[in-house]
Amino acid sequence: MEVGLLALGAGIAVGLAALASGLAMSRIGAAGMGLLAEKPNMLGTVLVFLVIPETIVILGFAVAAMIIFLLGG
Amino acid sequence: MLEPMTRVQIIGLHRQLEATTAALARLGVLHLENATESSALPSLALDPQRVRSQEDISFLQARLDALIQLLPDVDGASSPTRPALPTALDALANTVRAPLDQIAPPLQALAQRRDDLEAEALAWPRYEAMLQKLLPLAAELRVPPGFDTLALYIDKRYRSALDLLRVEVEHITGNQAQVVAADVDERTTAALVVFPHAQSAAVHAVLEHENITQVRLPKEIAGRGFHDARRALEERSHRINAELAEINAQLHAQAQQWRPQLIGWRSVIHSRLQGLQAETQFASTAHTFVIEGWLPKRELPSVQNALAQELGPTVIVHELPVDDHELEHAPVTMENTPALKPFERLVRTMGVPTARGLDPTWLMAIFLPLFFGIIVGDIGYGALLLLLALFLKRRYASNGAIRDLSQLLVYGSIWAIVWGVLYGEVFGTLQYALGSPDNPWPPALWIPRTGDQIVTLFIFSVAVGAVHVVLGLVLGLWDAWREKHRKEVIGKIGMLVALTALFGMVGALTNLLPQAFFTPTIVALVVGIVLLIVPLGWMGLVIGPLELVETIGNIMSYLRLAAVGLASVYIALVANEMVGVFGNVVLGMIVALLLHGLNFAILMLSPSIQSLRLHYVEFFRHFYKTGGKEYRPFKGEA
Q1: If you count residue pairs, one on A and one on B, with CB atoms under 8 Å apart, how many are there?
Q2: Crossing angle of the two packed helices B341-348 and B400-423, in degrees rounded to 10
Q3: Closest Cα of chain A to B352: distance in Å?
Q4: Rg over CA atoms, chain B
Q5: What are B597-637's pLDDT values in tens digits?
Q6: Cβ B455–A69 below 8 Å, yes or no?
Q7: Which residues of A touch B350 (CB under 8 A)?
Q8: Is the peptide bond prior to B442 cis by the omega test (within 30 degrees of 0)?
């Protein structure tokens, strides 16, 4: 039971973070594509803005890993 | 590093202006500035004759462009060369205009005829398709003399309009008309109407009123019987093809003869126009012209020697003294060794640094491949990446962008192999198959990522982030100190003090440092936050702590070094487990290979982007200032 709850907690941690990250990146990506259609030389800047929200899912992953290894261990 | 630049002034006699401009274009190192702004001299006045000449050669360039477009590219034609043409504008224009006036009209006529024939050739199949559909209907018709025929296409949904048309036409013609109709496909009905020529206007008026579209054939075949029209179409099509082949052969021959020369002329004219454009930035006195600009300091002696040799002692190049304020507005170029050029390209995507700023190319050259290696950290994948990178570098040696990217991949894959040795990883978990579960081969020299020491890996990643971010802050502090930006210096010191305090606090809480350190770290943290707040005034009460939190977030962002790497390890682990899952080794191997392939594709892209992002967002923001003016030397067309 406890293992199951830990797994559930880890899954929620990374899943919700991934959802939030994806939501943010989808909007940034769409805006970025619109910008690139007019200014192809802005690729570097667009890429930077696109990957900024990835920190959210990375932190979610870190929390999930800590739940499994620290609490589960 | 940023190339040291120097400001120069070139003065010469008016009669040497064109030769000087041409020489500077050939040297291609001088970034021109507007000489009238700094010297308070009037600009080089363009006399009306010169303006007319400039317009003439602009027009000639446009004519050459149009003519070159008309002529096909030919293999085996001689390569374009820059012909020796007069320097004087009028003489240049006359030399090019005369032959152009001779060859252009017949070439343009040929090209126009070709375009007309091609358009006609495109239309014929459409008419042929129409006739093909109408022929069965035509077989039912008798067309007596004095009668006209017209063909109609109607959408099947409006077929009822045909009945109305039949009634109208028979009424107009006194029952002398004949209308036959049939479906030609699932959406269209075709109809043929035969009527006396005398009622032609009335019948056409009915068609217009009912908004029915008539099929109109070209005048060459209109009015003929349908069979004759079809034969005429085929003959016409053959004649068009023959004439097109002849025209293309003539254009090909003309292109072989003239294209290289036209391209050469265009190149010379383009260079002269560029020179004229540049001259709008020159100043002048009664007898001399004055040019000002920037060039790399190391190029100054060669420019002075070259101009002295070509133009003699009447053209002088001398270095102007530059104060700090002027140096801030100098154009910026980076000068790095060929090994660092790929990293320079990446730095440039973030913008041109300020003239007195820092060039982080060498720092990126150290940390970017290192981060890539920490994330990938696998001997097998690293070796495959290295092979791929070497192949791409050799295959696309002439393509600058791909060559640079493959060079970056070479550096990164070497570090990936190094970290693979430290983690003891071969394609995820194959080290356990090569050795044993208790004694993997190769053994991990540091910690295995597949073990239970994940937290150590996370701590390591955060520590790497702390070092990298603190390095960025130190560079920012040094830059602010150099530029005497006092508030920025205080802010950077405050951030460093606060971060150090936080690290000490964490150390004291985790017993890495004695407990006695805890209270001093609290005091240091408060001091650091105060130093963050003070330079910003009252707004600092909010912004100061926020900046500290943001910087902590930057450091935590380096967890991706562990997280992204672990993701690829787990994909590889699943791939390796697949071999035994299906009960069929061959099927299992295929699925495993596919998963490893997917993992490999992700590893090519994701670690690079993550490492780049850490540099662009977390590292550069503490010290890298953009907004500099890019160095664009005046040079002629190659």
Answers
A1: 54
A2: 100
A3: 13
A4: 39
A5: 999 998 988 899 899 989 998 999 899 988 888 999 998 75
A6: yes
A7: 44-45, 48
A8: yes
Pick from B556, B550, B612: nearest CA to A60? B556
CA distance A2 to chain B (A): 19
Report pTM.
0.73
- Residue B29 CA to chain centroid, in angstroms? 25
Distance from C-alpha of A16 to C-alpha of A56, rounded to nearest angstrom: 10
Beta-strand relationship, B629-630 and B331-332: parallel
**How far A34 CA sits from the closest chain B CA (Å)?**
19
Q: B560 and A58: CB-CB below 8 Å? A: yes
Q: Is A48 in contact with B556 (Cβ distance < 8 A)?
A: no
DSSP A38: H
DSSP notation for B594-605: HHHHHHHHHHHH
Of A52, A54, A59, the CB nearest to B556: A59
Cis preceding linkage at B313, omega within 30: no
Q: Which of B185, B195, B229, B604 is nearest to B391 (CA)?
A: B604
Task: Identify all chain A residues contacting B458, using CB atoms and an 8 Å cutoff.
Answer: 62, 65-66
Low-confidence spans in chain B with pLDDT less than 70 = 45-47, 75-83, 139-142, 211, 213-228, 637-638
ipTM of the complex: 0.74
Nearest to B541 by CA among B532, B549, B550: B532
Farthest CA pair distance, chain A: 55
Sole residue written with tokens 């909010």:
B542
Residue B283's DSSP bridge partners are B43, B290
Residue B565's closest chain A neighbor by CA? A58
Residue of A nearest to B349 (CA): A44
- The answer for residues whose C-beta is within 8 angstroms of residue B128's C-beta and 6 or more apart is B230, B233, B234
